[in-house]
Amino acid sequence: MGIKNSYKFAPLTRGGVILMLIIPIKDGENIDRALKRYKRKFDKTGTVRQLRSRTAFTKPSVKRRVQIQKAAYIQGLRDSVEN
């Protein structure tokens, strides 16, 4: 029996819709490389970040403050690149 062409890993939910991460596996590809691609794809979905942010309540004023600080930081980076 050969390995199937794709593995299906943990389901994700977004807005009540179940999303599946599908990682296509090429013939003869190492399983470690496929797991690495799965982890990278899973990180990009932001599921863990969302779970951690929901564990504690954050006041709207604190959210705004963090957003403004982040914008100022990014603007500073862009200004330093221009100079």
Description:
- The protein is α+β, with helices and mostly antiparallel strands and 83 residues long.
- The chain folds into 2 domains: 1-45, no CATH class; 57-83.
- 55% of the residues lie in helices and 20% in strands.
- It is built from 3 helices and 2 strands, in the order E-E-H-H-H.
- A two-stranded antiparallel ribbon has the order 1-2.
- A hairpin with a 2-residue loop joins strand 1 and strand 2 (17-24).
- The termini are far apart.
- The model has no long low-confidence stretch (mean pLDDT 83).
Based on the model shown, name its key terms.
about 80 residues, two-stranded antiparallel sheet, 2 domains, alpha+beta, about 55% helix
Quick overview:
The protein has 83 residues and is α+β, with helices and mostly antiparallel strands. The chain is built from 3 helices and 2 strands.
Structural class: alpha+beta
Q: What's the domain count?
A: 2
What form results from the Cα inertia axes? Answer: flat
**How far from one another are the termini?**
60 Å
Poorly predicted runs are none
Enumerate how many helices there are, as a single number.
3
Q: Write down the secondary-structure element order.
A: EEHHH
Number of DSSP-assigned strands: 2
* Rg from Cα: 19 Å
**How is the main sheet built?**
2 strands, antiparallel
